[in-house]
Amino acid sequence: MTKQTDDRRPIVLLVEDEPVLMMVLSDLIEEAGCAVVEATTAAKAIRILEARTDIRVVMADLDVRGSVMGLKLAALIRDRWPPIELILTGAVKPDLSNIPARGVFHDKPFNHEDISQSIRSFTIL
C-alpha cells in the first residue's frame, strides 16, 4: 500500500523482509493506533518516503535486504527526512552510538509491549 490514507491515524512505514514478522509487527502498529505502510526492501522504503509526506515513524529491521542496509538506511532517513522518528530492530545489537538521533533500538526477539510503547511515544498527536 503506497497511497495516502484518508484517516487521521499516524502513519508508520514498516520495513521488514520476513513475512511472519511483517504480519506480527503490522498488527502491533495498528493496535497502537497507527496505520501501516509496508516495504520489504530498503529500496522500496526509500521510494515510499519519496512519494509520501505523511509518514511519522519508520520501523525498520536492520537486517532487511535491499540496496541500503541497516544503519545506513536509518542515517539516510535521518538526513533526508529529519522529522521522521526511527524504531530499529535486529537480532544483533549494533553499537548504539551509531543509532541516529531520536532513534530507538529493540532486540529480536522483542517484547511486544516495548515496541508498542515506542510507537505510541512517537505518534502522540
Alpha carbon gyration radius: 13 Å
Give the CATH topology.
Answer: Rossmann fold
Count every helix, treating DSSP H or I runs of 4 or more residues as helices.
4
Secondary-structure element pattern, one letter each: EHEHEHEEH
- Given the C-alpha coordinates, what overall shape results? globular
Separation of the first and last Cα atoms: 23 Å
The percentage of residues in β strands lies in 15-25%
Helical fraction equals 25-40%
Q: Which architecture does the CATH hierarchy give at level 2?
A: 3-Layer(aba) Sandwich
Low-confidence spans: 1-5
Q: Class, according to the CATH hierarchy?
A: Alpha Beta
**Number of structural units classed as domains:** 1
State the CATH superfamily name: Response regulator
Sheet having the most strands: 5 strands, parallel
Strand order of the largest sheet: 2-1-3-4-5
Residue-averaged pLDDT, rounded?
85
Total number of beta strands: 5
Structural category: alpha/beta
Quaternary status of these chains?
Answer: single chain
Structure description:
By secondary structure, the chain is an alpha/beta fold. The chain has one domain (11-123): Response regulator (Rossmann fold, 3-Layer(aba) Sandwich). The chain has helices at 19-31, 42-51, 70-80, 112-123; strands at residues 11-15, 35-39, 55-61, 85-90, 103-107. The chain has a 5-stranded parallel beta sheet with strand order 2-1-3-4-5, with helices on both faces. Strand 3 (55-61), helix 3 (70-80) and strand 4 (85-90) form a beta-alpha-beta unit. It is globular and about 35 Å long. It starts with 10 loop residues before the first strand and ends with a helix. The relative contact order is 0.18. Residues 1-5 have low confidence and may be disordered.
